Amino acid sequence: MQIDSRIEKVLFDKETLETKIKELANWVNLEYKSSENLIIVGLLKGCLPFLAQLIKDVNIDFIMDFMITSSYEGTAKSSGNVKIILDMANNIENKDVLIVEDIIDTARTMSKVVSILKSRNPKSIRVLTLLNKPSNRVVDFEPDKFGFEIKKTDFVVGFGFDWEEKMRQLPYIGILKANKK
Ligand code: PRP
């Protein structure tokens, strides 16, 4: 496969992602096999390739919903200012909520989203993220399940991750060359 010239190194190729995401879909199937009211909430925009791949192997009924939050505003550094730009459409009271995210980094975004959604009295709330960067936490938070752990210094692009809002469509996750950061 042709690798984008701005990529220094591929961290997770297409096949590695597909295998891991199948495993995560199986986790969803097991965790929610008795649930009658599952709502999967994707945090746009980064979750999109992950969520699209994940749901192909989810074999239980669920409702899909989305939220848009923003913290990075197109740069590599977190501004620390998490905004809810678009709220989800469904009422989650007494429902099982699974939030699907591309990465938990400082955890500012997820801790804010979870606290907002908890106040709406769901039956349960869990977080599934493709990538986890525990060494960069500003807020104490752990997801219920993650795909891969990455290092603090890994600035990732592709498969939903952007560089200045671009490069989200790459079918793999890579590290940008130093002169692009
Ligand atoms: C990114 C990412 C997470 C969040 C993680 O979103 O998708 O939502 O930052 O960072 P944190 O743990 O430090 O809060 P971003 O605001 O860049 O939006 P995007 O999904 O549109 O890329």
Automatic annotation (TrEMBL):
Please list the reactions this protein catalyses: GMP + diphosphate = guanine + 5-phospho-alpha-D-ribose 1-diphosphate; IMP + diphosphate = hypoxanthine + 5-phospho-alpha-D-ribose 1-diphosphate
This protein's pathway: Purine metabolism; IMP biosynthesis via salvage pathway; IMP from hypoxanthine: step 1/1; Purine metabolism; GMP biosynthesis via salvage pathway; GMP from guanine: step 1/1
Cofactor(s) recorded for this entry are: Mg(2+)
Alphabetic keyword roster: Cytoplasm, Glycosyltransferase, Magnesium, Metal-binding, Nucleotide-binding, Purine salvage, Transferase
Where, per UniProt, does this protein localize?
Answer: Cytoplasm
Presence of the UniProt keyword Magnesium in the record:
yes
What GO molecular function annotations does the UniProt record carry, in alphabetical order?
glycosyltransferase activity
**E.C. number, please?**
2.4.2.8
Q: Record's Gene3D superfamilies?
A: 3.40.50.2020
Mainly resides where?
cytoplasm
Q: Which Pfam families match?
A: Pribosyltran
Question: Which enzyme type, at the first EC level?
Answer: transferase
For whether the record's keyword set contains Magnesium, the answer is yes
Q: Where is the Phosphoribosyltransferase domain?
A: 13-165
NCBIfam families in alphabetical order: HGPRTase
- Hey, which family's this protein in? Belongs to the purine/pyrimidine phosphoribosyltransferase family.
Q: What is this protein called?
A: Hypoxanthine phosphoribosyltransferase
Please report the organism this UniProt entry assigns to the protein: Metamycoplasma equirhinis
By which gene is this protein encoded? hpt
